[in-house]
Write a structure and sequence with these properties.
Elements: H1 3-6, H2 8-15, H3 39-58, H4 64-71, H5 75-103, H6 105-125, H7 129-157, H8 167-199, H9 204-207, H10 209-220, H11 235-254, H12 256-279, H13 293-323, H14 328-334, H15 336-339, H16 342-356, H17 359-376, H18 385-413, H19 419-444, H20 451-476
Length: about 475
């Protein structure tokens, strides 16, 4: 999730783009109620918020077997533990930027992190899977409000104006640090999840959010409140988007007759969504964005990356513990070679994009991830751990290389005033694809007697998606002259 802002986010911040796609050009001062006394405090609060919501997207995977044993839940329930967070996070992100503008970024962030912290406490105390899933949904709703408002707070604290001592470089550096917080969370999530589960309990992965959330709130209290700005909301579009995504996920996870009914609901909701978006004056997803082939291909490629990455993390977390009998800590450590490279490669990807344009690193990144998926096909319960760890590296390496340039390609393909909107659609698409991948991979490995064959089918499906998006990138994106 954090990868898409590492390279391009700093550049957009330096150019004066905001989370909702507005521009600062021609202005002499950031329109806030008053200036924060310490930009560093604001940046730290925003970084902590971004870190903790990114962490919760990955930290729970390694703890799933322990949660299942403790709360007597099957694989279907465990899938909802993951998707209960991811789906509202993805769907509500479409309107979160406008909501942040309407009530003020500081209020949106403060309210979001307060609710997120309380929901984390409820997760840690959950007596059963239904309560845990419900609390995870609340976490996802809160996280969707926190993500755009945290970046808006950074923008507010580091105005790109002549009177700012740091100027655009200060903002660019701040946004880079903010993005690095999310990338770090992706890297350490499996290790933290495994360590806390092994040393204490799976409940610790949620309780760890409490001190982080409280610290962020204390820091936020020492900064100025953000000014409210008019921002239209597309309520019908947002509701139909949530219904379509939730029904589709339910259909994949639950299957059977209920799944067919849910699939029909998803199709009806999708048709309603498209109809609303084509007529609403301020749609959450302007369908005109997809007339640009660069935007369409970039969003498709980003979604394919998320489908592959989150699906692999989910299924291998189960494979390491359920099939190979490894501990939660060992399973978490298995992901270290894979995830530790993400922040480093993100930075490299930004430099490559600046020099060669987005097309080359997008193609190379997709091919590397595709090679990683194919390398995982022969693995089995007897595969040596070092071989497994090395085979996983290209999956993260490819995504880390390609996501920043595909974000850059999206931003460059739209006018400056629509950059934030396009980024929101891209981000929401990637999160939705990640949630659906957990549903699909989980359905394929539901029969434990055929776990390996189901896992390989999921890997092949992800490989087919990446092959298609790689071909589309080659054909649709023009090389830099």
């Amino acid at each position: 999730m954090s990868q898409e802002l590492t390279a391009q986010g700093a550049r957009d911040a330096g150019e004066g783009r905001c989370a909702t796609g507005k521009s600062d050009h021609g202005r002499t001062r950031e329109p806030t109620a008053d200036r924060p006394s310490s930009p560093g405090l604001t940046l730290t609060a925003a970084l902590l918020g971004f870190f903790v919501i990114t962490l919760d997207a990955s930290v729970v995977n390694v703890a799933l077997p322990s949660i299942g044993r403790d709360l007597h839940g099957g694989l279907t329930g465990l899938q909802w533990v993951v998707d209960g967070y991811t789906l509202p996070f993805a769907a509500l992100m479409l309107s979160a930027g406008a909501l942040s503008d309407r009530i003020g970024a500081s209020r949106a962030f403060g309210g979001g992190i307060a609710v997120f912290t309380a929901a984390s406490f409820a997760c840690g105390l959950s007596p059963g899977l239904p309560v845990l899933v419900a609390a995870r949904v609340v976490q996802g709703v809160a996280a969707s409000a926190m993500l755009p408002s945290s970046l808006a707070l950074v923008r507010q604290a580091f105005p790109d104006t002549a009177e700012s001592p740091a100027g655009g470089k200060g903002r660019a550096r701040a946004v880079s640090l903010w993005a690095a917080g999310g990338a770090s969370a992706v890297a350490v999530g499996p290790v933290i999840g495994g360590a806390l589960t092994a040393a204490w309990s799976w409940r610790g992965i949620f309780f760890i959010n409490l001190p982080v959330g409280l610290l962020a709130l204390l820091l936020l209290a020492r900064t100025a409140r953000s000014e409210r700005r008019p921002a239209p909301l597309d309520v019908p579009g947002q509701l139909t988007a949530v219904l379509a995504l939730a029904a589709l996920t339910f259909a994949v996870i639950e299957g059977g007759r209920q799944g067919l009914v849910a699939l029909a609901m998803a199709l009806v909701a999708l048709v309603a969504f498209l109809r609303v978006e084509s007529r609403h004056p301020h749609p959450v997803v302007p369908l005109g964005l997809f007339r640009d082939r660069t935007v369409t291909v970039s969003i498709a490629a980003g979604s394919a990356f998320s489908f592959a990455f989150y699906g692999v993390i989910f299924v291998l977390s189960l494979f390491f513990q359920e099939s190979r009998g490894q501990s939660a800590l060992t399973a978490g450590l298995m992901f270290v070679p894979m995830t530790a490279l993400i922040p480093v490669v993100n930075i490299l990807a930004g430099k490559v994009t600046n020099r060669y344009g987005p097309r080359l690193p997008m193609i190379v990144g997709q091919l590397v991830m595709l090679a990683g998926l194919l390398a995982l096909l022969p693995i089995g319960t007897g595969t040596p751990a070092p071989v497994l760890a090395v085979a996983m590296i290209p999956v993260a390496l490819g995504g880390a290389l390609a996501v920043p340039p595909l974000t850059a390609a999206t931003m460059e393909a739209v006018p400056a005033e629509r950059a934030g909107l396009a980024a929101g659609v891209l981000n929401a698409g990637r999160q939705a694809a990640g949630g659906l991948s957990v549903a699909v991979f989980g359905a394929l490995v539901a029969d434990r007697a055929h776990f390996l064959s189901g896992m390989r089918t999921g890997l092949l499906l992800a490989a087919v998606l990446l092959t298609a998006t790689t071909a589309a990138t080659v054909l649709a994106l023009r090389p830099r002259r």
